[in-house]
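Q: What residues go here?
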């Protein structure tokens, strides 16, 4: 009977919570005033911020460091890297390839439990300056297959010779499976006279004046393989010695 009642206990708890909330709000307001007031003073007068000059041990060292960084925001060299054309980090990333999708086919793999459906993508990449590559990959989704084929094409890219007229140095005749491809140089102003995968790969390689023809099958994979084999058969050193470049 002589103890504290339930109502008095609840009232005491409410008073304690209100006091605690008031103290927290006051501390937050003081911190905001110190932060923004110190930053404005350092910006207008050129003096160190208030946080760096305070001798009180209650100020967190991390806040002092942060205040010092805020005072240096008006330096001319601050964030100067953002004005550069080159991105940060690894700057030497090699040639920039342009990729083109040559073919997408649906494939089926027969396994013990049934059939697994997937897609096969054929992608050609090139920088239009003498580098060209071809990749073929399969996956369960089209986008994954295209990405895998593009990565393979970039890894296996080769260098091809280009004359001053942006043409082939000599005639090329190659056969790959059922595909038979003929490519030969052309004078300036002719353009690319070819079709299908032959034209796409020659364009990505950087040729602007050349003739090409698919004499065998129309399959894009075989014709693309034939073009790449023809490019690999060219001996750059002998072509340079002959003065064709």
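A:
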């Amino acid at each position: 009977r002589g103890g504290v009642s339930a109502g008095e206990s609840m009232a005491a708890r409410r008073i304690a919570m209100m006091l605690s909330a008031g103290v927290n709000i006051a501390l937050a307001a003081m911190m905001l005033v110190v932060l923004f007031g110190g930053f404005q003073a350092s910006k207008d007068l050129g003096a160190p911020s208030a946080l760096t000059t305070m001798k009180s041990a209650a100020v967190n060292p991390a806040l002092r460091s942060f205040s010092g960084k805020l005072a240096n925001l008006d330096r001319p060299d601050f964030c100067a890297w953002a004005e550069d054309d080159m991105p940060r980090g690894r700057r030497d990333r090699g040639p920039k390839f342009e990729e083109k999708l040559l073919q997408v086919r649906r494939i089926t793999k027969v396994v013990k439990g049934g059939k697994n459906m997937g897609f096969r993508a054929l992608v050609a990449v090139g920088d239009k300056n003498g580098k060209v590559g071809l990749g073929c990959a399969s996956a369960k989704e089209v986008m994954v297959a295209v990405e895998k084929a593009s990565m393979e094409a970039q890894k296996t890219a080769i260098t091809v010779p280009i004359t001053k007229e942006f043409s082939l140095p000599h005639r090329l005749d190659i056969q790959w499976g059922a595909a038979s491809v003929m490519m030969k140089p052309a004078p300036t102003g002719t353009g690319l006279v070819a079709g299908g995968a032959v034209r796409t790969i020659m364009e990505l390689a950087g040729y602007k004046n050349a003739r090409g023809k698919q004499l065998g099958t129309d399959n894009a994979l075989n014709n693309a393989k034939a073009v790449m084999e023809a490019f690999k058969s060219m001996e750059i050193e002998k072509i340079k010695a002959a003065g064709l470049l």
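A: Context that may help when evaluating the design: Strands lie at 98-111, 114-126, 131-139, 158-159, 172-176, 179-185, 192-193, 210-214. The longest helix spans residues 6-45.
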